[in-house]
Amino acid sequence: MKREELFSVRMRAAKGGAHERGSTHVSGGEMLAAYSDIQQAVMYLLEKGLVHSKGKPDFMQIQFECIEEPAKRVEPLSVTTNKVKSAKEGRALAWSLLEQSGIPRNIIDEADRLVSQYSSMRGAMLIDVHSGKRLDDRGEKGVRASRMDWQNGHYEKWAGCHHMPLHSRIKEALALATKVCEHRVAVAELCWSDDPDYITGYVASKTLGYQRITQLKEYGDEQGCRIFFIDGKEDVDSYIHYLEHQPVMIQWEVEK
């Protein structure tokens, strides 16, 4: 039986022209789709880019390309929601969860310092858990995890079973975190959005799963954070290639 072709459909939107001109990032997104579903994916991403709390973009790029590599199929990380009363409490919990994932506190503090240096990161910075040094050389661009999605209908079944909302935020974030943590080089991920109206973030790792934290910043704050803590003694280039090129499909069946 011939394998069905998959296409990576991607969108990025900005204010002030193309991202390469130093513009302000507004929105981005990606889906994996069969050829027959490309039009639906494009329309979804178009609407996502046009309607955003960061404002109206004056630049948008939507593209799709056929994926040659077969998709790796993996189960989603387990999910826990941690309710906190303030960003301060949320950050303290995040630091504790990162420590539980095996990252020394001095490395976490150094990563926090690096975040403040980059106010408009579009991707993630890769931080070595041994030295605290940033191992990618991408500057404000960072490294973007790409080519991941849920198998058709699987997120809806998962969300219904786990009493989670059907909106795209958790769906997309859980798919990304699952892909990021699947690789042997990964130790943990720390993330919160640059959306000024969305203050929830997460810590994710193989050992702790996807730990949602209801507040990691203040409303109105447009600075986001995405850090992949990795074992710098491993092949970092292979991890970057995996993040950018390896298609990963998240699948989930009703647990017996």
TrEMBL record:
Pfam entry (one): BioW
Record's subunit section: Homodimer.
Family: Belongs to the BioW family.
Protein name: 6-carboxyhexanoate--CoA ligase
Keyword terms: ATP-binding, Biotin biosynthesis, Ligase, Magnesium, Nucleotide-binding
Keyword Nucleotide-binding: yes
Catalytic activity: heptanedioate + ATP + CoA = 6-carboxyhexanoyl-CoA + AMP + diphosphate
Enzyme Commission (EC) number: 6.2.1.14
Keyword Transferase (UniProt): no
Superkingdom assignment: Bacteria
EC top class named in words: ligase
Cofactor(s) it depends on: Mg(2+)
Pathways per UniProt: Metabolic intermediate metabolism; pimeloyl-CoA biosynthesis; pimeloyl-CoA from pimelate: step 1/1
Entries under InterPro entries matching the protein: BioW (IPR005499)
NCBIfam families, per database record: bioW, PRK01322.1
GO MF term set: 6-carboxyhexanoate-CoA ligase activity
Function according to Swiss-Prot or TrEMBL: Catalyzes the transformation of pimelate into pimeloyl-CoA with concomitant hydrolysis of ATP to AMP.
